[in-house]
Design a protein that fits this description.
It is a single chain. With 69 residues, the protein is mostly helical. 68% of the residues lie in helices and 0% in strands. The chain has helices at residues 2-14, 27-36, 43-66. It is elongated, with a radius of gyration of 17 Å.
Amino acid sequence: MKNIALILSAAALLTGCATTKGLEVSADDAKECAEVGCTPWSERQLEGLAKHFFSLGVKAGIQRQKGSI
C-alpha cells in the first residue's frame, strides 16, 4: 500500500502543470489546483495505474518465494 501511495503522489507531482481549461470544477477545487497543481487523470485512470503496479509487486513477491522453497 505504501508503494501505491508513493506512485499516486509521484503521478500527481509529475502532472502538476496541468490546467483546468475545459473542465468543470468548483471554485474551491480551482483554487486548490492553482495553489498546488492538479492532475488531468481521472480517478479511474489513477486506480488502474495503482492496480497495475500492485500486480507487478505481487508477481515479484511470488517469484521471490518460488526460489526460497
